[in-house]
């Protein structure tokens, strides 16, 4: 902390002695040089800036270099008047955009000052001042473009490299929200500021409330090398400005209506009932002319919807037919009020308040039947002041906001309208996850709180040709809440493959399958011992500080050079407040030689981890760049490079905290009982080997879900009766209840992720009102948090021969064979079909692995041998580097990613561009990109969501390939036309090429024994990439018929061969090659797919609107009634998700012959090497999704009526 305070004092001194520009966060600016006809600068010229809407005026004088800068300015229309001795007066009509330095370089004409020259700079101007790559979505675009749900983030896709994402893909609490991915990074960390107030959700990502278009004046989206004043983010930043009052009363009222019976397309052949009513209004005007102004409004979405039941494995089609729809009602309310005051001495004050209430039924992608209810309440206020003193400008902002979320299970409220397998016959609630999602949502109940108290100061000082900038910002953040995962219901992992179907079972009955595993929650929901928000725990507080200094040097009227340095810090995001656990804190029953007294416990996993987690205070990000606009300033060459730091969401903090806290509190935890094993470790309870009625777990875990559920629910009830809501010893502490299992926690080294951004490009005004931009953008992100098992559980090199012999002997005995681990006993077990384990077939690798011939991650649930009452010699055969501890997953700053793109934008805004066209506003963008990452997390939003693992545990950056967010080609366009005689037409479209997915080996039948079948590189991770491929290979290296060539090559060269784990047991003399092959302990052949397999789909969507303003000016100036209609996805182009093997993942498992059959005719639908038929397509069809997010959904028609005044 002393180091932090020292840095803070140094930066504060630098800020108070240095200089800056306050344009990027709180509005825009006008800056430039005044020259005479020869190009010489004109010092002492008077420059007056007039806000046309409010009559607010600012006057400055150019310095010795003829330079001036005025800001921050509220976005809108302005006139710039320049006068000087011996020159004619010049009046320029221009526009100020959010986050943009409007070009203010003008050439004066010799003559009398009594003469005035008037010039219109136009709405579109070449940016001759700034080095970064950004774009502004204007009020005209927001008003005219057909945006479903009026969500401004949808319009952001007009910028290249921007992809709209459903907030529900980040977290269940974000159902009904949208997010935007920028420059190849998921939208979880895209920073969103509204009037300078940060409204980013710090707990899970994206925004804390939807900002509707009616409240917004315009917004800027930074795509590369943002201004040095920008907030903490290594990706994009969205700067939104709300509307304000003017000297004229103005506003609107609107009503939009959609209904499935009116111009909407069917979904998978069924008419899904749907109706949306969206209405509201805004009004602004003067309270005191030229002084005090108001603006405010309200809008509401009331949506009734039944979603089509899609997404289940086709084998469960009878269930979908019986329950074809799932209720998904949605409401969203937003209200805003704003005051602006032009005070004395040119001071501008403003204050704004918002209140948002959002309510939704959703599934978090667990479609169709795992429904929950989500409700969010968000109040927020912000205020500030902007003023100028001499050559200094000052801008202050202060704000407060609170996000409160409550999430509850929705299946009970929906009653018999959906399929729900729960009931007394199953011993209680059962949640199915996998091939069919049904039953109570495992994420409920939970509640989330977040508060953010913010303050920032931005200032500038203009001296000579330099605009020095400086600033400081501070946030006091707090996140809290609870989440009782797996607690209300028995979480059941269902993979509906033939190998899991019990003998004589009905394949269409999900309860007739053996579960891959069950998860038993302890009924607690706290992730922190610190009380807050009225709860006994769950609080995660943090300070955010930032400061910057910079200089924009107008080296000549044509050349601008920029340099700056930003410092930022987020405290305690990696639990830096906690001391590292010591061996003395380990339960005596778990202690082992070498771990005693003050020896750091984490060093037992890997040296260097046993110190307090590093708090990075020295996050300094320099940036440099240039902007060269020769001659008439209609061409701009720009380039920039900089370092930009990233934050970490609070979910990472909480998820990684409980295992390091020794305090007494009811912490969340769970145990996992895996198919083929004979015990389950329940944190805080102990190891369970039988149900309360005495039935062995080894029997239960090989029964159908229908048979096993009552027993597993009974175990769960007994578990929760002991630990639920009991504020005793933390059941999740690594040294006791968690059994020395480090399950993604921070330790020792930690560094803030950061990106190195580079851009270079050209912008050219090719004709009046037409500007073309072409930029190369590079973003290399380093120190991404990756969970790495530093103990290397399951690695082939860690084979413990004694433990392996014990596992083999236990297996042969279970099959009635004598001789322990001898070759004769193994041969006996392999041939013994008359057994009680699985009558009719002899022992296989799953049986040996279930007795311990596996990693401790699979065999012991990641816990140590001692926690399970075993010794190293009787524990897992592949226990890791240190067999005395469990799995060692630590979050380490070792990941990396890269983004390279060529981005092109064409903008046109003209009056009378063609006969019959009164005006037009068109933008076309194209993005050619490549996104690569080493993060093995399969979800496209998870780059900065700590916990993701790589594809290789020994070398996490060994496999770097395409990200699931990768769309090589992205074309977006939008525009509006005002046609002669009144008709207005508008359109917006997006066409993206197919995303990439990784091809992995099949582990659908369960994790047990997979070290011998799918761990091809011997690092202990299973379900490896298909040999010869890299992440994201499908749709790039492998396409179409190339899939079968890959499969045939694998079957010829790899199938039937031994993995490193298999080679290890053979080398140790435990198995002969023939025995291991007979036990199926080899890589399995992959089923051959169809000649034309399923291709990952491209995104195609085109929206169109038309309206006709009816002018009513005779009643009131500016009054008009505008009826209209919008059609979303006009041509009803079908869009689909990827075929992923396991729903919800960004990898495609190629199912093997053992789990299906020799070819695609016997492969279940939903796999790339399975049928590519209509059933597969319907299951993957994109529907309306949650809230108003329907990117690529079926066609809907909206009828609109708007009153403008």
UniProtKB/TrEMBL annotation:
On whether Oxidoreductase is a keyword of this UniProt record, the answer is no
Q: Entry's Pfam families?
A: CarboxypepD_reg, OMP_b-brl_4
Domain (TonB-dependent transporter Oar-like beta-barrel): give its ranges: 241-309, 327-1142
**Which top-level group of life is the source organism from?**
Bacteria
- Report whether Signal shows up as a keyword of the record: yes
The UniProt keyword set, sorted, is:
Signal
Signal peptide interval: 1-20
Q: What is this protein called?
A: TonB-dependent transporter Oar-like beta-barrel domain-containing protein
Q: Which organism is it from?
A: Tunturiibacter gelidiferens
Q: What is the lineage of its organism?
A: Bacteria, Pseudomonadati, Acidobacteriota, Terriglobia, Terriglobales
């Amino acid at each position: 902390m002393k180091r932090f305070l020292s840095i803070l004092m140094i930066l504060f001194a630098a800020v108070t002695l240095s200089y800056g520009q306050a344009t990027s966060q709180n509005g825009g600016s006008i800056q430039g040089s005044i020259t005479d006809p020869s190009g010489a600068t004109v010092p002492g010229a008077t420059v007056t800036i007039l806000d046309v809407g409010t009559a607010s005026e600012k006057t400055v004088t150019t310095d010795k270099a003829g330079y001036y800068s005025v800001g921050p300015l509220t976005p809108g229309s302005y006139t710039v008047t320049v006068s000087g001795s011996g020159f004619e007066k010049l009046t320029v009509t221009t526009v100020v955009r959010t986050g943009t330095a409007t070009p203010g370089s003008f050439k004066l004409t010799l003559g009398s000052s009594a003469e005035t020259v008037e010039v219109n700079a136009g709405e579109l101007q070449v940016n001759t001042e700034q080095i970064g790559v950004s774009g502004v979505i204007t009020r005209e675009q927001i008003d005219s473009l057909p945006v479903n749900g009026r969500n401004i983030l949808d319009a952001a896709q007009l910028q290249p490299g921007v992809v709209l994402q459903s907030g529900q893909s980040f977290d269940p609490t974000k159902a009904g929200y949208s997010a935007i991915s920028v420059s190849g990074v998921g939208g979880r960390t895209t920073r969103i500021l509204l009037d300078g107030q940060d409204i980013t959700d710090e707990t899970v990502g994206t925004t804390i409330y939807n900002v509707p278009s009616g409240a917004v004046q315009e917004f800027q989206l930074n795509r590369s090398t943002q201004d040095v004043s920008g907030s903490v983010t290594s990706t994009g930043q969205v700067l939104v400005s709300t509307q304000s009052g003017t000297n004229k009363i103005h506003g609107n009222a609107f009503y939009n209506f959609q209904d499935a019976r009116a111009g909407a397309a069917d979904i998978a052949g069924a008419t899904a009932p749907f109706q949306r009513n969206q209405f509201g209004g805004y009004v602004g005007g003067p309270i005191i002319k030229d002084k005090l102004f108001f603006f405010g409004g309200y809008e509401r979405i009331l949506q009734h919807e039944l979603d089509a039941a899609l997404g289940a494995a086709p084998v469960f089609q009878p269930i979908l037919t019986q329950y074809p729809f799932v209720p998904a009602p949605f409401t969203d309310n937003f209200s805003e009020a704003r005051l602006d005051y032009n005070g004395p001495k040119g001071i501008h004050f403003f204050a704004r308040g918002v209140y948002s209430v959002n309510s939704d039924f959703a599934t978090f992608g667990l479609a169709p039947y795992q429904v929950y209810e989500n409700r969010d309440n968000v109040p927020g206020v912000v205020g500030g002041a902007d003023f100028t003193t001499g050559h200094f400008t000052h801008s202050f902002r202060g704000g407060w906001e609170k996000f409160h979320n409550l999430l509850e299970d929705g299946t009970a409220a929906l009653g018999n309208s959906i399929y729900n397998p729960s009931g007394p016959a199953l011993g209680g609630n059962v949640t199915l996850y996998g091939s069919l999602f049904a039953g109570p949502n495992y994420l409920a109940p939970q509640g989330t709180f977040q508060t953010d108290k913010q303050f920032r100061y931005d200032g500038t000082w203009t001296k000579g040709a330099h605009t020095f900038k400086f600033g400081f910002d501070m946030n006091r953040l707090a996140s809290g809440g609870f989440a009782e995962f797996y607690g209300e219901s028995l979480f059941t992992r269902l993979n509906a493959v033939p190998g899991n179907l019990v003998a004589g079972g009905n394949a269409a009955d999900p309860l007739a399958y053996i579960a891959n595993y069950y998860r038993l929650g302890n009924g607690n929901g706290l992730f922190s011992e610190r009380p807050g928000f009225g709860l006994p725990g769950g609080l995660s507080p943090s300070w955010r500080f930032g400061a910057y200094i910079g200089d924009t040097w107008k080296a000549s009227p044509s050349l601008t050079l920029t340099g700056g340095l930003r410092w930022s810090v987020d405290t305690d995001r990696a639990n830096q407040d906690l001391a590292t656990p010591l061996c003395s804190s380990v339960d005596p029953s778990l202690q082992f030689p070498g771990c005693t007294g003050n020896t750091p416990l984490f060093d037992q996993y890997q040296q260097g981890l046993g110190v307090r987690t590093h708090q990075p205070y020295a996050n300094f990000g320099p940036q440099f760049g240039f902007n060269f606009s020769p001659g008439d300033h209609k061409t701009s060459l720009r380039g920039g490079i900089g370092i930009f730091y990233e934050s970490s969401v609070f979910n990472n903090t909480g998820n990684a905290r409980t295992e390091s806290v020794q305090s007494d509190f009811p912490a969340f935890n769970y145990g996992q009982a895996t198919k083929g094993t004979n015990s389950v470790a329940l944190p805080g309870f102990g190891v369970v080997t039988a149900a309360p009625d005495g039935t062995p777990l080894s029997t239960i875990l090989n029964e159908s879900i229908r048979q096993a559920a009552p027993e597993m629910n009974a175990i769960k009830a007994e578990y929760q009766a002991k630990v639920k809501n009991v504020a005793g010893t933390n059941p999740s502490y690594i040294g006791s209840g968690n059994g020395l299992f480090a399950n993604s926690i921070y330790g020792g080294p930690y560094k803030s992720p950061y990106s190195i951004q580079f851009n270079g490009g050209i912008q050219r005004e090719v004709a009046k009102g037409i500007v073309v931009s072409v930029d190369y953008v590079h973003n290399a992100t380093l120190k991404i948090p990756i969970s790495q098992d530093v103990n290397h559980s399951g690695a082939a090199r860690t084979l413990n021969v004694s433990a392996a012999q014990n596992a083999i002997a236990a297996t042969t005995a279970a099959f009635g064979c004598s001789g322990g681990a001898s070759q004769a006993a193994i041969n006996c077990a392999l041939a013994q079909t008359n057994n009680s384990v699985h009558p009719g077939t002899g022992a296989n690798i799953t049986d040996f692995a279930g007795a311990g011939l596996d990693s401790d991650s699979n065999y012991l649930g990641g816990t140590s041998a001692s926690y399970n009452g075993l010794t190293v010699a009787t524990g897992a055969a592949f226990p890791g580097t240190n067999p005395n501890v469990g799995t060692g997953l630590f979050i380490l700053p070792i990941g990396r990613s890269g983004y390279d793109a060529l981005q092109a934008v064409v903008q046109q805004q003209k009056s009378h561009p063609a006969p019959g066209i009164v005006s037009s506003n068109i933008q076309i963008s194209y993005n050619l990109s490549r996104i690569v990452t080493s993060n093995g997390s399969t979800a496209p939003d998870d780059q900065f969501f700590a916990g993701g693992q790589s594809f290789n545990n020994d070398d996490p950056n060994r496999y770097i390939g395409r990200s699931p967010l990768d769309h090589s080609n992205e074309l977006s366009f939008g525009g509006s036309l005002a046609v002669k005689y009144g008709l207005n037409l508008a359109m917006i479209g997006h066409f993206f090429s197919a995303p990439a997915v990784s091809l992995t080996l099949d582990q659908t039948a369960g994790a047990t024994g997979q070290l011998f079948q799918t761990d091809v590189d011997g690092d202990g991770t299973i379900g490896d990439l298909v040999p010869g491929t890299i992440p994201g290979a499908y749709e790039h290296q492998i396409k179409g018929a190339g899939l079968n060539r890959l499969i045939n090559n694998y079957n010829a060269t790899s199938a039937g061969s031994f993995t490193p784990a298999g080679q290890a047991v053979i080398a140790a003399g435990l198995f002969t090659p023939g025995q291991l092959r007979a036990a199926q302990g080899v890589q399995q052949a992959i089923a051959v797919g169809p000649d034309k397999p399923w291709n990952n789909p491209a995104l195609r969507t085109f929206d169109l609107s038309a309206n006709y303003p009816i002018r009513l000016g005779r009643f009131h100036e500016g009054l008009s009634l505008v009826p209209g209609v919008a059609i979303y996805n006009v041509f009803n182009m079908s869009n689909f998700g990827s075929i992923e093997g396991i729903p919800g993942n960004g990898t495609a498992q190629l199912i093997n012959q053992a789990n299906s059959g020799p070819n695609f005719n016997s492969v279940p639908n939903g796999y790339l090497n399975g049928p590519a038929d209509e059933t597969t397509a319907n299951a993957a069809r994109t529907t309306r999704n949650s809230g108003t997010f329907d990117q690529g959904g079926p066609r809907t028609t909206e009828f609109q009526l708007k009153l403008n005044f």
